[in-house]
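Key idea: predict the complex, not the pieces.
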Amino acid sequence: MALIAETTTNAPRPGGTPLFTGRDWDFPLLQRVYDAIGEIAEKELGLDIYPNQIEVITSEQMLDAYASTGMPLFYKHWSFGKHFVRNETLYRKGWQGLAYEIVINSSPCIVYVMEENSATMQTLVLAHAAFGHNHFFKNNYCFQQWTDATSILDYLDFAKKYVASCEDRYGQETVEQILDSAHALMSHGIHRYPGKHSLDLKSEQRRLEERQAFAEEHFSDLWRTLPKTATGPKRDMDAERRRQLLGLPEENILYFLEKNAPRLAGWQRELIRIVRQIAQYFYPQRQTKVMNEGCATFSHYRLMTRLHEQGKITDGSFMEFLHSHTSVVFQPEYDDPRYSGINPYALGFAMMEDIERIATNPTAEDRSFFPDFAGCGDAYGVLRDAWANYRDESFILQFLSPNVIRKQKLFRLIDDSEDDDIVVAAIHDERGYKAVRQSLSRQFDVGRQDPDIQVADVDLAGDRKLILHHNVVDGITLESRDAAKVLHHLANLWGYDVKLLEIEDGQTIAAHDGSPSRAFR
Amino acid sequence: MHIIDRRPDPGGKSLANRQRFMRRARALVKQAVREASGSRKIREIDGGGAVTIPADDVHEPSFHAGRDGGMRDYVLPGNKKFVSGDRIERPKQGAGSGSEGSADGEGEDNFRFVLSRDEFLDLFLEDLELPNLAKRQVMGDSAEKRHPAGFKTSGSPASLSVGRTMRRSLSRRIALRRPNPVELEEMRRELLDLEAKFGESERIAALKAEIERQERRAKVIPFIDPVDLRYRRIEVTPEPIARAAMFCLMDVSASMDEQMKDLAKRFFSLLYLFLTRRYKQVEIVFIRHTHEAKEVDEETFFHSRESGGTVISSALIEMAKIAKLRFPADEWNIYAAQASDGDNLSSDNARSVALLRETILPMAQYYAYLQVGRGEFDREDGVFARQETTLWRAYQELIRPNLPMAMRKVNDRRDIYPVFRELFERRDETAETS
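Result:
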């Protein structure tokens, strides 16, 4: 790298005066840095962002923010205290550093920056969060579809006040019980597919008319002459009808409880709703970890490099930036003691950098793998399209190039409990690229990470037992101790017994039961 | 873009959540605190610090996949030697990857966190109470506490509550419809207007009569009536004496070994800790004795040895002397704790008991006797039950209900805390008076 050759590290490069030279920063400097980044972000990368609100906080406040998943306001619950206590201990013992920033998907987009960051780090943080993440939040379809950035802070404010007023009225403990139970089911309080509306009378009428019209159009008297099947499978019309009325099967368990649990009071339903809405708000972030961090990391890397090329940051601070950048995108290998899964920053950044390379300087292999955009020249255009229209699973499936697979030496293992050994199914070679890519894509599919559990039926005429089904994939059943605890919470909300059946290929392979310990009143 | 400086915002946003968590984990934390106190050094006992509780009870469950069985499919980075089709022996369960998976909540890691000093002590000393805390002797005026206690109808002008008086005055004036000066003024002006216009009319006469009536009303109904007056009521309560003197008496004769001294020291530390929680000022007097007693500093008290016989009454006399000189009983709360192995000169027992009964106990708030043993079997129901020491038997004779004295035996480090709790456990009022 050429820049190491320079002797005085703080010497500005020709062609520009650096925005800052030392470690210290102040508010006017933040503004100047922001403007300088903003110009590059808009003109060169074509980023499209929400207005930003930069909030400078202390490390204490950062710890506070950690506890409530970064949100500036949140209702009160002991579990946040638990996270706070844990993070605080880790931090004070020096086992864990604090993030340089937290960014919130809202409009205006709130970016917390820590006061102890150096001027270089503040520049990096602004490039990463205020532009990278911000662009992603605003443009990615998952966020557009599921979250409303303009209203989330108002909603959290409402939630906080509502929970507090419930505590005043019904007692902290009662409220806590409901929240505990709802939190246990949070991962199953999400609508995964849009567009399911309950039928209103008008559309039902219309549907009926359409069906009649269809029947009239296709009427044929001949049908009448067909002999009736004597022993067709007799369907239980009552059960069908009941399930239909309750909207079953339903995978959003919290939604089902909010609408149908027989013994909940209005305020309890509202509390469940609050937990559900918040789970839904965070769902896109879980779906787009690699992309979100990749987008932010790629953006900050490009922006910082451009700033340096323009002479706006000194060689010294560019080195400081590179130091923290490389530690962010470090991917330990699988046999390294530091290995703890695939680093989304590293994977996202590597893939996006590779997309840029393919768009501008493709090889023959790239042309065969990515005929759509290899060599098209408009790297940022391709990236913006990817950032807008994919989530982790589809992004990897579409864009993971053989080059990245080779660089990271990715390989695929299959661990079948019925086999004695673990089998290496594919490695980074000609035959393996597609298998590795497919497998990695599934690894990042949130729909596969969360077990597929649905409310299947209710025995309304009998003991009101709620039946749930877990559709087992690849023979992986639920962890039974936790499942029993969650079912207990579920039973408390439902008010009666619940049963969870784990079903694979039509066979029930495991069952869990739960009974309410107390009925909420 | 705009920048907001949040740094001056009040901190402690998570305090409420932290407290909720503490409340939830209270039982566990309490147990952990007590266990932690056993392994700590005496000087560090009140330092707060980290305690560890099992994560199980504060675990947040969720539906997630188990770790056994099924077919799993991974992609890992950093392949070095594998080619596809290679078979790798499955690593044995628990071999090396034991802590794996704790991130998903399954690992039963213990939960470790730091308590502040106050949190630690609160839990540590929960439900304990100093006996006879309510010593009420007052030291003249300075020990009186004056606090507001509502209002009264009479009092000195200086204690008049203007706000309260005016409020009552206002409500009375409204109730009796005392005319408003503004309204009166308006009527007068209207009268002047009418007089200027018409000179004489029926309307004017009526207005005049009305004005006269209202003026009379204003005179009859006073602005402030004696019934409105309210004075601040101040109640004076004598303040309990907020300082205590703690006497530590210890036998340092040759029969007391280091281990027994350590037990005694633990007990004294706990007592000191406890007293500092309750009193603003706690003085400690260390008196050690063999056949003669001496007041010493802490270092000497615990660490230097002396040989000689054991005469407990010498320490009691010394204590009485010091108390008389420096800690008069009407100004100080006096607590005493005596530690001994019970081997007293047998001729001295009667004298000690007499001293206790006549001099020490009347002035003391509480007197605790701790008999330390060597950790050997000392069960009263055991076959080899040791004979009670003569001192123990002598003291036992002394014990009466309502006498501020208690005695316990301790043989092991871990007994100290339970014994301490037992001695200072909060008792019901009824049980105490009966």
